[in-house]
């Protein structure tokens, strides 16, 4: 398989999915670890409209998983449920085995879920490094007085935050841009910066909402490698919404297909590509 410029796209090595007691499937390498996320009969209604219904998914601790479906299928609503922008009407979300029913958006972020958005939401007048450091507030330990009077504790924490920001930027080869204004970056670099900022919260599960939107084929291929690098380096799970099927099929290990708020298929990329129900949902009946 190649991208639109004719360059070969490296496809992920096949991963064996194995069953777990909750009737889900996770990568074989994660079978001895507690799943990072499990949704059981998750749903939400707006008035009489069931936007998401009986959503069941399980994600292994280092799995790269995809959530796909036609426009309006409910994918972003699922992300909003996982991050507690919306509170579920029904069902349960377990994060690292813990029920999140009493968590709000701030608590869920500190518990280990980070996300990006379809529309870039950077602080354009701040530097690249400061955009990353903004997300580290929960881990900064100096108090107000230490910050006001620039006491030794302040400088110690600032040095640690600076080094952490550069380490994360280096995952995307962006450490040389640390002093640039975020708003001056090209579009693809802004997309990457938003992912880095999400990683600065130290998540165990990273949610990417259409990370390749607006990218050219070369940038998309680079993004695939960067996502793999993030997973391998930080040993975290990734769940992504994406319309670029080349990216999804080449990077995801398990894929969940949503249509009209309901799951219509789950499986490996090969299973999803050949599933007639999925093909019909995207292309319609003959």
List keywords for this structure.
6-stranded mixed beta sheet; alpha/beta; 286 residues; 4-stranded antiparallel beta sheet
Helix content: 25-40%
Low-confidence stretches: none
**What global shape is seen?**
globular
* Spatial extent as radius of gyration: 20 Å
SSE series = EEEEEHEEHEHHHHEHEHEEHH
Strand order of the largest sheet: 8-9-10-5-11-12
User: What characterizes the major β-sheet?
Assistant: 6 strands, mixed
Strand content bin: 15-25%
Describe the structure.
With 286 residues, the protein is of the alpha/beta class. It contains 10 helices and 12 strands. It has helices at 75-82, 105-111, 128-134, 144-148, 152-170, 187-199, 217-234, 245-251, 269-273, 276-283, and strands at residues 17-19, 25-27, 37-46, 49-59, 64-68, 90-95, 98-99, 113-115, 205-209, 237-241, 254-259, 262-267. The strands form 3 sheets. Strands 8-9-10-5-11-12 form a 6-stranded mixed β-sheet, with helices on both faces. It has a 4-stranded antiparallel β-sheet with strand order 4-3-6-7, with helices on one face. The chain has a two-stranded antiparallel ribbon with strand order 1-2. A hairpin with a 2-residue loop joins strand 6 (90-95) and strand 7 (98-99). The longest helix is centred in the middle third of the chain and has 19 residues, at 152-170. It is globular. The model has no long low-confidence stretch (mean pLDDT 89).
């Amino acid at each position: 398989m190649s991208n639109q410029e004719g360059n070969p796209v490296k496809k992920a090595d096949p991963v064996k999915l194995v069953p777990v007691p909750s009737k889900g499937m996770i990568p074989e390498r994660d079978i001895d670890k507690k799943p990072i996320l499990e949704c059981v009969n998750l749903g939400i209604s707006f008035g009489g409209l069931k936007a998401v219904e009986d959503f069941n998914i399980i994600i292994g601790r280092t799995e790269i998983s995809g959530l796909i479906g036609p426009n309006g299928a409910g994918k972003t609503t699922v992300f909003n449920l996982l991050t507690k922008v919306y509170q579920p009407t029904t069902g349960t979300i377990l994060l690292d085995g813990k029920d999140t029913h009493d968590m709000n958006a701030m608590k869920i972020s500190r518990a280990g879920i980070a996300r990006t958005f379809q529309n870039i939401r950077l602080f354009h007048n701040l530097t690249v490094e400061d955009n990353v450091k903004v997300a580290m507030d929960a881990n900064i330990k100096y108090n107000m007085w230490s910050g006001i009077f620039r006491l030794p504790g302040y400088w110690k924490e600032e040095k640690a935050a600076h080094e952490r920001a550069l380490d994360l930027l280096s995952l995307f080869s962006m450490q040389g841009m640390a002093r640039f204004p975020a708003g001056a970056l090209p579009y693809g670099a802004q997309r990457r910066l938003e992912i880095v900022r999400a990683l600065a919260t130290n998540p165990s599960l990273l949610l990417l909402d259409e990370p390749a939107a607006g990218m050219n084929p070369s940038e998309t291929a680079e993004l695939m490698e960067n996502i793999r690098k993030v997973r391998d380096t930080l040993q975290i799970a990734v769940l992504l919404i994406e319309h670029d099927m080349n990216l999804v099929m080449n990077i995801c290990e398990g894929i969940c297909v949503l249509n009209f708020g309901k799951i219509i298929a789950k499986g490996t990329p090969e299973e999803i590509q050949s599933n007639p129900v999925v093909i019909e949902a995207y292309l319609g009946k003959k």
